[in-house]
Design goal:
Blueprint: E1 27-34, E2 40-44, E3 51-56, E4 66-69, H1 77-81, E5 88-89, E6 95-99, E7 110-123, E8 126-127, E9 130-135, H2 152-164, E10 175-182, H3 183-201
Parallel strand pairs: 5-8, 6-9
Antiparallel strand pairs: 1-4, 1-7, 2-3, 4-6, 7-8, 7-9, 7-10
Amino acid sequence: MAFSQPFFRWRPHPWHGLSPGPLAPQVVEAYIEITPFDFVKYEIDKATGYLRVDRPQRYSSQPPILYGFIPQTYCGRRVCELSPGTTRGDGDPMDICVISERPITRAEVIVRANVVGGLQLQDNGEADDKIIAVLANDNILSKVTDLRQIPEAMTARIKHYFATYKSMVDEQPQVTIAAVYGCEQACRVIQASMDDYDEEFGRA
């Protein structure tokens, strides 16, 4: 029996066992943790690679797009250096938001995505960038090459979600969005996170 290459006899760890893609940082493979239909925030369990319930979404917060991470990335020293005002990277894989014209209703899927921009998000002094991308083979969005081509209302919705998704009544905001950037800077941030991963873990 012939197997495709590469072939995994066991389920690979989504963070360490999957590839960011041969065309990264411009085109990446993204592992999706939550969808716009989830009222609970799920997050990869770093030890096992399975999804863990992180918390219910607070108040009316609901992710407006697919949300996950780029495998074999790490927010460390280099990512921090690209985010003035932060003291360290958040120590997680690089987060990514993927916009799709058709609803994708299930998580724990892999999608190929064209990088178009990102948010320079800072969480209690940590660099926590959110890369924004479009589904690579989307019938409507696949030709988009920069965040400026995305409708402003969609960008505003993504910004609002991340500006408020950790907020609690009568508490000071933990999260600030220091900047919104386009494709070129997003690729620099992804490359920095890939280099941080190599330094922290090595690359298979």
